[in-house]
Amino acid sequence: METLRLDDFLPFRLSYTSNRVSGAIATAYQRLFGLSIPEWRLVAVIAECDGTTQAAICARTGMDKVTVSRAAIALGKRELIARRPSASDRRAFELGLTDAGQVLYAQVAPKALELERQIFGGLGAGEATRFLATLRRIDAILGDSAGDVSAR
Amino acid sequence: METLRLDDFLPFRLSYTSNRVSGAIATAYQRLFGLSIPEWRLVAVIAECDGTTQAAICARTGMDKVTVSRAAIALGKRELIARRPSASDRRAFELGLTDAGQVLYAQVAPKALELERQIFGGLGAGEATRFLATLRRIDAILGDSAGDVSAR
DNA sequence: ACGATATGGTGTCAATTGTTACTATTTGCC
DNA sequence: GGCAAATAGTAACAATTGACACCATATCGT
User: Fold this and answer.
1) pTM score of the predicted model
2) Which residue, A88, A105, A86, A87, is CA-closest to A46?
3) Is B143 helix (H, G, I), strand (E, B) or coil?
4) pLDDT by residue (tens digit) across B15-25?
């Protein structure tokens, strides 16, 4: 039997490292801006693409629609985003940053890039690029199948 | 201002892919063996290293001690692991697989390796190796500092 | 045009997860 | 030897998360 060593088992190591990175980032955002990870993701997506809807954010980020809904409500209450009823679909909102949201984003975005550099800047030349490419290849292998590899 | 694109933002992509992989694995283990991810990790560690204690498992896997405690109790109830009071430290248990646990492990381990191959086998030659090495480098960068990058 | 079905979004509930506090034992220090 | 501080493990609680049910609107087939 081929042996199994947890230390070399890729799904474990991936989860382990990812959790550490997420923890570090989450702490920083909470402390600096009072934003949870879902909330800051919404801010980032909306800044990139004004007028998106919650469903579009779900598709793009893989977050659950309930998570997105809660984050949107919270950001709305803090008046960081505006939720205008969509003209073309009266069930949906078009999400946009308010002025306050744009001010926040102007602080958040550079900080995000700085954190990224702190963590991934120590990698060798090309290493980060290859790493990102491999992550994308894994996504492709998992496919659009909601991720149930074992269902065959 | 250097632009921030969520699609290229490494902490996000890492979390995204890791969640998909974990989800796939978790579903498979739940369905096949009725094991949660913490539980199957305990089985794997104990199989590798008979007589370990819960604290050692925490150190090795980064899991919270409460999580480990719960998993150990659950596995004990199912009589997959035995929890013998440690001779040298009467607070601790020495954990070991029962006969039933070993039977289970003999099924679980090959399946784990097969799942790993299904997901990571599609990567190019050396790509998986480099990927693992990069994960370890990231761990090293984060250091032992409980992961608070922002605390400076 | 109209009924069936799908979709955007939210409320509610259950399960998971982490936080804090606690007991029992051990270790280090005087 | 005895007391302070640390550690192994657990319990009780709080917060996060996701699953499910639901309403309003939109889309599709006929």
Assistant:
1) 0.90
2) A105
3) coil
4) 999 999 999 99
